[in-house]
Amino acid sequence: MSETPKKILDIKNLDISFKTNAGIVHAIRGVSLDLCKGETVAVVGESGSGKSVTMKAAMGLLDSNAIINSGEILYTYTDKDGNEVTTDLLKLSRKELRRDFNGQRIAMVFQDPMTSLDPTMTIGKQIMEGMFLHKHMEKEAARKRAIELLDLVGIPEAEKRFKNYPHQLSGGMRQRVVIAIALSADPDILICDEPTTALDVTIQARILELIMDIQKKMKLSVIYITHDLGVVAKVADYVNVMYAGKIVEVGNVNEIFYEPKHPYTWGLLSSMPDLDTDDERLYSIPGSPPNLLHEPKGDAFAARNQFAMAIDEKAEPPMFQISCTHFAATWLLHPDAPKVEMPPELKTRIERAQKEVAKIL
Amino acid sequence: MSEPLLKVENLKQHFRISRSYTVKAVNGVSFEIYPGETYGLVGESGSGKTTIGRSIIRLYNPTEGRILFDGMDITGRLEGKTRETLRENMQMIFQDPMASLNPRKKVSDIIGEGLDIHHRYQSREDRAEQISAMLRKVGLSPEHASRYPHQFSGGQRQRVGIARALIMNPKLIIADECISALDVSIQAQVVNLMKDIQEETSCAYLFIAHDLSMVKYISDRIGVLHLGYLVEAGTKEEIFSNPVHPYTKSLLSAIPHPNPEVEKRRKSIAYDYASSGIDYAKGTEHTVGGTHTVLATDEEFEKWTNQR
Question: Domain span at residue A272?
Fold first, then answer.
């Protein structure tokens, strides 16, 4: 890239705990992540790894039992007078967030389109709601804009659909409406929390292509939260792999898919079924994610890691730099560590993938 | 090949909603499952795959058609004895491990319920012994028997669901989207477990899913279902290397690949039944070769096979 793109969201060393009946759950343990203008960043991890919580913190949607121990979420935007302003979203009150940021500058698409729409309101009304609140639009103008948006998200006969209720639409159409609502106030950042998990594969592909299209048209920055690496491969520029409340590997999408360094990323990649092999068994990461009620000592992944070393039990690995964009937190990258190669099956798979790429180029 | 374990002939399942409106969920589906094999049923939501599973295990009364299980007709009114063999030899694993386990029962009672009903044990010790053996088989420990479902994670709960199905030593297990609700890495664990169990007990699976890549991993033969019609069927090699029906092609094109350079250039093939001009009701079964069949009219079949 010739010019360095502008950072618009910068999460620094975020640390969040939850107070529960069973004790304090340390859900986010120092997460740093940044998003530049017009880019797509994916956050990948198992359920319970803290990927949704991180994004909810940026939206001010954390539950009341959450305690933010440290960190900041810096958001840079241009205000009405054209000045560039940077604010820490964590320092704002919920009210300020609601008034000036949520929906207006940072919008979110939720996982389940069945539950994120109001069943008692027509979809047109739901799309206009945001425009009335944030943009103080006239009714006619809002109506026109809403129909434009329905058109944009690929709903045929937008004019007629405007008066439909959510139950009259299929799952894929409903998710399109949710996207239209998110776009209604022209946000800078779109956060998609597992936007396609509740949908079928065919519809999933279409929704993803739609989001990518809109992103180009509106110059949005998009954050995807997902556990599906296929989705990541399709949409992301940069990937953050999260495990037990920490980011364990960051890199651009090619680095993560063709030169993964962290054993957890190896495991995730290998456990994806591959259409081209006839392996009898699917690789699976042994064990299950740690319970963050008890703070893991050393590397949280050590217990499930076949390459774990003695030091993994004692100290948490720092982020090792591999290239200017690629970082991984594993002791295997320490200069004193024994040379460990990724599992051979994964290696052949990546080699095959690269051959496929060479064929197209 | 030997006699099929399950033979479904022209199964129709309609639901009458009101006098003027009937939902035709399944329209004349036929397929066979042989002992010890895995048959994968794929299709989008609303295509009738779950309905077929439920009709086979007789949670619904089939509207038309015949289902033969182990040579026994299990459609229509069931004799007491037929019902009993059916319930013992066919089991189901459900989609949502949260909703399919009774939260007020201990795991031992959930797994042991089949044993209780069919009097499959001599003494209390024998029952406990069978349950702990089953728990070990699915990768849980015998201490888990006295716990309640909420004390488990999603993957572990699905294991309990599998244990409940397996304890009757069934010949056929209907797995209805049993991995869809789980995380990727846990999915792999459960699928491997199911494969291991099949090797050990040589039970047959009817594997219902919408995730084609997982279906390819576990199945021997695959049926593609759309709007209640079985549009294409064959072995997994036949379906994946040589899809004929446009719907199958569209389904295959939608599978995401973990290869960013390829994935970013690829567009999925759209398929819209309403505008495609295909009428499933007019189609008949055509053989492409081997066991590979496709639902089409003569002209359509000509067109699709000549395209390649």
Answer: 265-360
